[in-house]
Design a protein that fits this description.
Helix content: 55-70%
Shape: flat
Distance between the termini: 10 Å
Number of strands: 2
Largest sheet: 2 strands, antiparallel
Order of helices and strands: HHHHHHEHHHHHE
Length: 360
């Protein structure tokens, strides 16, 4: 049985994709409830079990009381209040462990049964290793909020988010290969305008999501509660003079980061529109055309959700919907690029290199 024909491998990869999406959104919930710094140690094995008994809880709470978050933000927190945020982060870590098992156990089984040949196992092993590395990055992010300031580094948070996107892209690419057939290149892929624009769409979307990570880490969503105006004007003065040198404002000043994030969304929308008009009269599959339409509509929905997050002072439900929609946009943009790359060229009769889809 070929890799393409094995439904178990395909299902496994899609399940892993779904787990990545869920974990990113749940991570957003952890951040918005200020629960991420409640567990001050990283114990991959013993951390499977929560504290048992009053003495164990008091010891865990005593460790939290030494952190900047307790001293500067939650100094009036009781043990019951601590238990609430502890369990949110505990569940988050438990889900991460479960996701790791969902990756590793089926992978070893597929390799043992030679369903995935060893000679083609590198990318699957990379997915497993990246999952482990993502767990390390999660702790590396959390540890930055346990020293001096009661919040994690916005840089580390954004890197953690981008690694999740990379892991999602790699897993989804393999899942789509199993779904549609592993491509065998014949003369190389023609770099058409739709291809390059689909790459650009992914690039600007990833940049916009990165700024979303910076907004989250800096808590820049609270910088303004009005939209489209900020502080009564469309473009606030001094956006590049808050910090020195000027370029630090682009990634460290909450007001500037917020401003860039809210307006760069229209760059993503413009790229979607251009791709739609560029492809609508060409003979791509209906999947491609429908996906681009959905992409354009979802960007519009995402802009509205972003405005609502501002208007309602970073309401948790709206913020999570905003984050979840960003992930869906990434999946759709990635799918568009995949299908454009792997479809026969939409120029009948023109002698250009083509792709032939065959099972590996």
């Amino acid at each position: 049985m070929s890799e393409k024909d094995n439904k178990a491998v395909t299902t496994w990869l899609y399940v892993v994709c779904a787990l990545i999406l869920f974990m990113v959104v749940f991570g957003g919930y952890v951040r918005l409830t200020r629960s991420g710094l409640s567990i001050v140690e990283w114990n991959p094995i013993s951390g499977v079990f929560p504290p048992i008994g009053e003495e164990a809880w008091q010891q865990e709470f005593a460790k939290y009381q030494l952190t900047p978050e307790f001293k500067k933000v939650n100094k009036d927190m009781t043990l019951d209040g601590y238990k609430r945020i502890f369990y949110v982060e505990y569940v988050h870590r438990l889900i991460a462990r479960f996701a790791g098992l969902v990756v590793v156990i089926p992978l070893f089984y597929f390799l043992w049964k030679k369903i995935i040949p060893w000679r083609k196992s590198a990318v699957y092993l990379a997915i497993g290793l990246l999952f482990a590395f993502q767990g390390f990055l999660g702790w590396y992010m959390v540890s930055s909020g346990l020293r001096d300031i009661p919040s994690v580094s916005h840089y580390r948070l954004t890197v953690h988010l981008l690694m999740a996107l990379f892991l999602l892209a790699l897993t989804l690419w393999m899942a789509l290969n199993h779904r549609y057939g592993f491509p065998k290149r014949v003369g190389g892929i023609s770099r058409t305008a739709p291809f390059w624009l689909s790459v650009l769409l992914i690039a600007v979307l990833v940049l916009q999501i990165s700024y979303g990570g910076l907004v989250a880490g800096l808590k820049a969503g609270h910088a303004s509660s009005t939209y489209p105006l900020m502080f009564g004007v469309l473009v606030p003065s001094g956006l590049l003079s808050i910090l020195k040198p000027w370029w630090r404002n682009l990634v460290e000043a909450a007001t500037t980061v917020h401003f860039i994030h809210r307006w760069f969304a229209f760059v993503v929308l413009t790229a979607s529109f251009i791709l739609y008009f560029l492809t609508k009269k060409r003979s791509f599959s209906s999947e491609v055309h429908r996906s681009i339409i959905w992409m354009t509509l979802l960007v519009g929905v995402q802009i509205l959700l972003g405005a609502m997050v501002v208007w309602f002072h970073v309401n948790i439900v709206l913020a999570l919907l905003h984050q979840g929609t960003a992930l869906i946009l990434f999946v759709v943009a990635f799918f568009i690029n995949y299908r454009i790359v792997h479809e026969p060229l939409p120029y009948p009769g023109k002698l250009e290199p083509r792709l032939e889809l065959t099972a590996a």
